[in-house]
């Protein structure tokens, strides 16, 4: 594995760093307080090519490899996890899954709009009654002539309020030993689809997270993505790659925590000198730096495997498990360095901790990642 960035990778990283410094970081606290990221950020992300990374240019993508994607995601995560999540879902879970599983017409219909930021995608797997056990979902799509009619509801859907299209997973048939789930591309303006914004989240407060309700939503059979009954595999393959992106975002959080802790420790004086000079404060800071480096290496390892076409699913679970726990630890350590000032939102570390916390929950909780890794190592499923 080559740990040197190419010129192109370094250029795209710097582009993301500048963008975050100019268009994201200065507004992150305001968006957090108002529970509303400025939606115009989506077009800006598209114009810079950040919503099309790794997508072929013929579909409006900006090409690039998965390491470049991780570099951009890390920078966005450093600036504001709510913005990072827009990209991780619209590109990472929807556009990239379309590239892998969509037919030509679906790709032409959605990819140029998703990659430019003209349209936003969301990923509808979780339901009020099924989270970790996603294979038991109950939203149902019934074939009716040339259409499918879909009924059910989806919970905690990132980008849900803003999205133009939902990559929706619904049960289509139930044969023994078969999950019977299929994937559909459902425009969110389809009659019968309603959404409710979920307010009061602990973190990612700027992000448009929604509950979707589907009542007799009628879509043509052409909305089916991939073969009928293949939806669970499609969802799992999407999430495996998605975990790499979550991990990269976590590296960004940990880096932001490190920068903040080092900066504050150098300025804050107690007992007559900067707290940076105290060994116990240095311990907090050095622990954060180890978490940053270790999480980044695990994440880059996944990108390397993906780019070389090798099996990456277990490595992605390892990276996501470690990086998400590391981001929580790093933000918590940084908060300790800030003392009481870390506890008020005039300073950045409280938000980092709140934003980091969900990373251990979504796209598979830490417990679920451990079961995936354990199954790969032992050959025994403990689910
Ligand atoms: P549960 O599955 O009920 O788990 C509760 C607890 O039980 C957890 O600690 C879990 O680890 C543990 N547990 C469950 N099963 C086992 C087991 N077999 N062994 C050991 N422990 C177990 N979903 C989407 O589809 N699309 C999205 O865009 C999306 N975005 C999200 C954004 C936010 C802000 C949040 C909070 C969630 C989002 N989710 C999304 C949903 C997320 O993926 C789920 O919340 C997550 O999978 C956990 O499901 P759950 O909340 O139902 O918890």
TrEMBL record:
Domain Acyl-CoA dehydrogenase/oxidase N-terminal positions: 6-118
InterPro entries from the entry?
A: Acyl-CoA_DH_CS (IPR006089), Acyl-CoA_Oxase/DH_mid-dom (IPR006091), Acyl-CoA_Oxase/DH_mid-dom_sf (IPR046373), AcylCo_DH-like_C (IPR036250), AcylCo_DH/oxidase_C (IPR009075), AcylCoA_DH/ox_N (IPR013786), AcylCoA_DH/ox_N_sf (IPR037069), AcylCoA_DH/oxidase_NM_dom_sf (IPR009100)
Q: Which cofactor does it need?
A: FAD
Q: Which Pfam families match?
A: Acyl-CoA_dh_1, Acyl-CoA_dh_M, Acyl-CoA_dh_N
| Domain Acyl-CoA dehydrogenase/oxidase C-terminal: from-to ranges | 229-377
Q: Which UniProt keywords apply?
A: FAD, Flavoprotein, Oxidoreductase
Give the organism the record lists.
Answer: Streptomyces castrisilvae
Identify this protein by name: Acyl-CoA dehydrogenase family protein
- List each copy of the Acyl-CoA oxidase/dehydrogenase middle domain by range: 122-217
What family does the Swiss-Prot or TrEMBL record give for this protein?
Belongs to the acyl-CoA dehydrogenase family.
């Amino acid at each position: 594995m080559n740990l040197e960035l190419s010129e192109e990778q370094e250029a795209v990283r710097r582009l993301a760093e500048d963008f975050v410094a100019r268009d994201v970081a200065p507004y992150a606290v305001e968006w957090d307080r108002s529970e509303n990221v400025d939606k115009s950020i989506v077009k800006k992300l598209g114009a810079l090519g950040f919503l099309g990374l790794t997508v072929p240019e013929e579909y409006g993508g900006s090409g690039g490899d998965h390491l470049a994607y991780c570099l951009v995601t890390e920078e966005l995560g450093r600036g504001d996890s709510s913005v990072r999540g827009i990209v991780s879902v619209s590109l990472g879970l929807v556009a990239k899954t379309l590239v892998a599983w969509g037919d030509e017409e679906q790709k032409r219909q959605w990819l140029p709009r998703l990659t430019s930021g003209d349209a936003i995608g969301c990923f509808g797997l979780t339901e009020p009654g099924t989270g970790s056990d996603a294979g038991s979902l109950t939203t149902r799509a019934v074939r009716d002539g040339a259409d499918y009619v879909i009924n059910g509801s989806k919970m905690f859907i990132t980008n849900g309020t803003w999205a133009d299209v939902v990559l929706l997973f619904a049960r289509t048939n139930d044969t023994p030993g078969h999950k019977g789930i299929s994937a559909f591309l459902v425009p969110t303006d389809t009659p019968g689809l309603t959404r409710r914004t979920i307010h009061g989240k602990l973190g990612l407060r700027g992000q448009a997270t929604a509950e979707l309700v589907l009542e007799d939503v009628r879509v043509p059979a052409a909305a089916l993505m991939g073969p009928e009954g293949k939806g669970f595999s499609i969802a799992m393959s999407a999430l495996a790659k998605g975990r790499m992106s979550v991990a990269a975002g976590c590296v960004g959080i940990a880096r932001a925590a490190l920068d903040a802790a080092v900066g504050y420790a150098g300025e804050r004086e107690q007992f007559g000198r900067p707290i940076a000079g105290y060994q116990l404060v240095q311990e907090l800071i050095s622990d954060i730096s180890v978490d940053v480096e270790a999480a980044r290496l695990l994440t880059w390892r996944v990108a390397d495997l993906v780019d070389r076409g090798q099996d990456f699913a277990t490595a992605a679970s390892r990276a996501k498990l470690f990086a998400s726990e590391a981001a929580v630890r790093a933000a918590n350590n940084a908060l300790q360095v800030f003392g009481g000032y870390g506890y008020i939102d005039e300073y950045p570390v409280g938000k980092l901790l709140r934003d980091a916390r969900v990373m251990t929950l979504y796209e598979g909780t830490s417990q679920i990642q451990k079961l995936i890794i354990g199954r790969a190592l032992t050959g025994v499923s403990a689910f």
